[in-house]
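input
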Amino acid sequence: MSQPTFEGMPERLYPAAPSRLTTYLDCPRRYRLAYLERPTPRRAPPWGHNSVGAAVHTALARWWQLPRGRRTPAAGGALLVESWLGDGFRDRAQLLRARDRARRQVERYLAGVDPDQVPLAVERTVAVRTPRAALWGRVDRIDDRPGEGAVVVDYKTGRSILTVDDARTSLALAVYAAATARTLHRPCTRVELHHLPTGDVLAWDHTEESLAEQLARVDAVAARLAGLDEAYSAGMSPERADEEFPARVGTRCGWCDFRPVCGPGRSVPQKLPWAGVADGD
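output
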């Protein structure tokens, strides 16, 4: 049942993290399965590349908690080993190779990080509002750069090669920048993707106009989802639900957590849980 409203009351904001909105933009059917259907449908088994990413993020966050004298690349590698997860690998041999590779990547990355330049925040939740949405997100790292203000840093561990366009067009990074500015009360227009497998840093300097454009896009998506969510909760026939939340079939379906319960998605071969883990040096 929708919340009653009265004349003059402000419109209820749609609460969401950027990942919820981008899930819908990528595939409306996946959005419905992940966020609306209850109980949540059966998912695919855990992915090995997600285990790698989670361990790397944990190690890099914990590194800043160490006393200054212990913030060394080797210490970061040790934290990676301590944080390692074992889900989604083909066998123990692949797990150990992936762990050693990730440890080397973390150590190489930290060799280029100044341990004295303590970030403004690590794993910080920030929030911002648009006319129709209440948005929040957890930022990997927020730097304080002289002459640049606050800088959003997002760690990436996947095998895909990234470009500056990935930073420029990222809806999530734009939301993080706007939310950082609002939460920390300081300018924030620069966003960076730090890709550990290659050591590349892909950066983009937003303008106030480009951030406003991204937030307007977010607002429009949130407004649509607010209506769809309410209509789905009120009751939709299976036929209408399939029309409102179509499956966008493509190669990414092989990686989807909900492929086992998605009829159209099952036409794409299922990727094995360890397929996203690099298996060579």
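quick obs: The chain has a mean pLDDT of 94.
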